[in-house]
């Protein structure tokens, strides 16, 4: 998944960047609130990890502005403050979760999966329907009884398409979800990926809407 990390502390930022990359996330890291606001307004992110005390613009102010604009991207606040009132306030302003530093990366990843499935309207780590579903934890797709584990890019593709089944995503929208900043993307990268998924699960898995993009139905 594509993640925006807004973290002013260089040591923590580098550690999180490495850990999230190891977990197959595509991470864009900025160190202040102004850069965070610009990034959120110009790119798609599955989730935002926002340091509560980020410089440039207070984390709470950035979160408040984000929600006021109608942006519902899941936000996990990261805080080193041992202050219950501050954590409660961040949740009331619009954070989906609040994680106290220091934390284990495994727990952070589990919390990310939890907010993602809640956003998609599911109670478990499996999103989709009976005939087509994606396990967010095991990174496995099941289509008409055929189950297979997915590569990083395959998982990102199916997560984007199954997050809101029936929605048509354009080439630019899919590339935005699959690749981070500074990544060179071949002009036919999405086509190759979709072709590979159709070979695995059948041609009806992903439907092309001519001139618009791709969609799935379940």
Low-pLDDT residue intervals, each spanning 5 or more residues: none
Q: Over the alpha carbons, how many angstroms does the gyration radius reach?
A: 18 Å
Could you tell me how far the N terminus lies from the C terminus, measured between alpha carbons in angstroms?
A: 22 Å
Secondary structure: helix percent: 40-55%
Strand content: 15-25%
Total count of helical runs of at least 4 residues: 8
Based on Cα principal axes, name the global outline: globular
Instruction: Report strand order across the widest sheet.
Output: 2-1-3-4-5
Give the beta-strand count. 11
Task: Please trace the helix and strand order, writing H or E for each element.
Answer: EHEHEHEHEHEEEEHHHEE
Structural class by helix and strand composition: alpha/beta
Q: Report the mean per-residue pLDDT as an integer.
A: 86
Biggest pleated-sheet summary:
5 strands, parallel
């Amino acid at each position: 998944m594509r993640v925006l990390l807004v973290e002013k502390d260089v040591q923590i930022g580098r550690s999180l960047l490495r850990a999230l990359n190891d977990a197959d996330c595509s991470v864009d890291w900025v160190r202040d609130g102004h850069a965070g606001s610009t990034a959120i307004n110009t790119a798609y992110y599955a989730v935002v990890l926002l340091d509560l005390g980020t410089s440039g613009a207070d984390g709470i102010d950035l979160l408040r502005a984000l929600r006021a604009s109608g942006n519902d991207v899941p936000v996990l606040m990261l805080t080193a403050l041992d202050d219950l009132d501050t954590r409660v306030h961040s949740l009331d302003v619009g954070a989906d979760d609040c994680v106290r530093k220091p934390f284990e990366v495994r727990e952070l990843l589990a919390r990310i999966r939890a907010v993602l499935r809640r956003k998609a309207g599911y109670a478990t780590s499996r999103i989709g329907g009976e005939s087509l579903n994606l396990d967010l934890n095991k990174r496995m797709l099941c289509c008409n009884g055929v189950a297979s584990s997915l590569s990083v890019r395959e998982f990102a593709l199916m997560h984007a398409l199954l997050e809101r089944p029936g929605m048509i995503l354009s080439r630019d929208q899919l590339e935005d979800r699959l690749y981070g900043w500074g990544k060179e993307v071949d002009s036919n990268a999405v086509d190759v990926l979709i072709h590979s998924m159709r070979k695995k699960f059948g041609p009806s898995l992903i439907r092309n809407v001519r001139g618009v993009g791709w969609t799935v139905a379940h």
